[in-house]
């Protein structure tokens, strides 16, 4: 089982402009940037699930960024409140995605039959990945966003 991650020629040429774009504090095209940087070969097992996590992270960043731009926070506390509101807007779609994935994998864990043991070994990492994705999208990404954006506010002495 080979893991092949390679740079596409176009991404290698445009890497500097992509990094400048990211540094300018715009996340509206996070999904396109992530796929442009990583040209993931089909040799990666579970690639469709990687393809589901990247858009979720991009959507989360867009929701957070839109909420922060709407609120235009003047203090770190207002920023934290805006980020929390943006994260709350994503709970329902993320949970619907995870519940749908669990519902699709449930028959693998319930029924015994020919090949069930092999399918369980394949499905169990998917379940773990979905749980990790929920934690990443609803907790880690908002915290990182809040820390990154919070740099522009003065710290009390």
TrEMBL record:
Return the Gene3D superfamilies for the record. Multidrug efflux transporter AcrB transmembrane domain
Q: Name one GO cellular component term.
A: plasma membrane
Enumerate the InterPro entries for this protein.
Acrflvin-R (IPR001036)
- UniProt key word Membrane: yes
Q: Which terms are listed as keywords in the entry?
A: Membrane, Transmembrane, Transmembrane helix
Spans traversing the lipid bilayer? 94-116, 122-148
- Full protein name: ParE toxin of type II toxin-antitoxin system, parDE
User: What is a GO molecular function of this protein?
Assistant: xenobiotic transmembrane transporter activity
Does the keyword Membrane belong to this entry?
Answer: yes
Note the Pfam families from the entry.
Answer: ACR_tran
């Amino acid at each position: 089982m080979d893991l092949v991650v390679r740079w596409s020629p176009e991404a290698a040429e445009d890497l500097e402009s992509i990094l400048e774009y990211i540094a300018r504090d715009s996340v509206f095209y996070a999904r396109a940037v992530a796929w442009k940087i990583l040209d993931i070969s089909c040799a990666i097992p579970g690639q469709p699930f990687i393809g589901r996590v990247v858009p979720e992270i991009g959507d989360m960043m867009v929701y957070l960024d839109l909420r922060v731009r709407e609120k235009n926070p003047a203090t770190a506390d207002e920023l934290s409140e805006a980020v929390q509101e943006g994260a709350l807007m994503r709970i329902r779609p993320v949970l619907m995605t995870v519940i749908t994935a669990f519902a699709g994998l449930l028959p693998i864990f319930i029924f015994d039959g020919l090949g069930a043991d092999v399918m369980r070994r394949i499905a169990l990492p998917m379940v773990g990945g979905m749980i990790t994705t929920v934690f990443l999208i609803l907790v880690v990404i908002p915290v990182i966003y809040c820390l990154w954006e919070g740099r522009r506010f003065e710290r009390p002495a």
